[in-house]
Amino acid sequence: MSSLRAPAWWSTAVRRLLVVPLTVLVAASVTGAATAPAPEAKTATPDRPRYDVSLRSDADGSHWAGHQRVSFRNASDRPLREVYVRLWGNGDDKCGMPGEPSPVKMSHIHGGTADRLSVNCTALRITLPEPLAHGERTTLSFDVSITVPQRNARFGREGAFRFLGNALPVLAVHDAQGWHLDPYVSTGESFYTLASDVRVRIDHPSALKVPATGRTWTTRGGPGRTVTHSVAHQVRDFAWAAGPFRTATDTSPGGVRVKSYWAPNTPAAGVRLNRKDGVAAVDRFSKEFGRYPYGEIDFVMTKDFGGGMEYPGLVILGTTEEGSAVVHEVAHQWWYGIVGNDEYGTPWLDESFAQYANARFYGWDTRDCWSDVYWPSESGAITNSMAYWSTHPGEYHLIYTAGPCALADLERTIGADTMARLLKRYAHDHWYGVSTTADFKKAAQSVTDKDLAPFWKEHRIR
Prior knowledge:
Radius of gyration: 21 Å
CATH topology of the domain at 41-184 and 193-203: Immunoglobulin-like
Largest sheet: 7 strands, mixed
CATH class of the domain at 41-184 and 193-203: Mainly Beta
Number of strands: 21
Strand order of the largest sheet: 4-7-2-1-13-15-14
Oligomer: single chain
Shape: globular
């Protein structure tokens, strides 16, 4: 078999996105999952979730315990009889082993009857006490216990620093396809959530700094402790970190507060570059796609974190002297965060779009990049799901290479000004919503008289 080739413009910063070994991309088996009900209305539900969370950490942020409450509405035209909660933090460890339980546990559940954990302990079915009619709200509450795993990962640790990405349980989505109970993948994302309001209270030792999704502030806690408060509106997830970070705060010319947190051994030149490019990217993308709505964004930087990982209002960045993938991760605030998508089903809608924005920011020459794209088989397509990429790990880079090349070719096909108007209008039309490949193809066709069917076929956008 011929080896895969990456386009020449695929820079060092892009490669950092994929430093986690691709061989770990093996689809997890679904064990004990309940059968999803027949598809209902196209409207995604449960919608308008509101999460209220209170957590307390141990001395070094390795263990967190507290209480979580989530209220939600049934947007479907049929009664909602059950919901699923995703415990994505269990993805790598699955159901654990004797003496090593899963890192995320729920207990004392109120507001419904819990079934057994399924999908390798990443999904919990909760039957509601009575069917929830269209437009009605209800509430679930439960205790949560979180133990940070011994690995350097988005949910993991590096030295004295803890990363808590995808650690909080979140509601699964039901749409025209039924319940989305996809397996967890370590490289790439499985996540599909609806925009939510989140309020979190984090009680921790004062020696720890705690960057988090949302607008944050601190108050005095008990002796030797601090409470970090966070409020976030219309976000798809909540992440935080903890450790003896060094900190700095910048404000972009557009008025966004950019808070930087870094481990002391992080290269100083990389920290400076991340702050400079990150601040510029927030304002640049605000102009191109619509004003950044969250007011604050946190950059969490360490020397040995593998690549970068995006969350609403917070990104984790493995940082060298040359910086990191900060611009790509900032672009994700729009492409996945604001303009949502099913990251398991259509990962190109966030990764390819974020990398296209990254290429434009740095002014990369993409005129001939499509000619450098190598497809090993006819089954390969930019629009493939993580089910495909997990069984073809050597091809996964294509959503970072072929995807942005295709978007750059679309820009040349319809014109730069038209492409700019298309993306800004598309973001506006799907602001806090969910986008699909069909939606984007329809929107693109609406702005040009050229028949784009041959373009989609040539660029494997199916």
